[in-house]
Amino acid sequence: MPVSINVVVAYVVGIIFLFILGRFLLFPLKVILKLVYNALLGAVVLLLINLVGGLFGFRIALNFFSAFIAGVLGIPGIALLIILKLIFKV
Fold this sequence. Notes:
Number of helices: 3
Strand content: under 5%
Largest sheet: none
Radius of gyration: 24 Å
Number of strands: 0
Helix content: over 70%
Number of domains: 1
Structural class: mainly alpha
Shape: rod-shaped
Order of helices and strands: HHH
Distance between the termini: 80 Å
């Protein structure tokens, strides 16, 4: 049973298309996983700062803004929140 060259070319093009599609879908997954990692790390550090800082009267308010900054930026976001808290003395 001979296989036509058209069928072979169609399979090769299909495999290449699936490979390219997989690469495009993998990139957003990496970005999402990095955001989830930053969000978890930021939340844990924000919680620790509020627990330890509460002993010294230093707390960072838990609201949408601080959670967003800590979630997107992670540790640098927490540092930014601390610096803003110290500068504006809020």
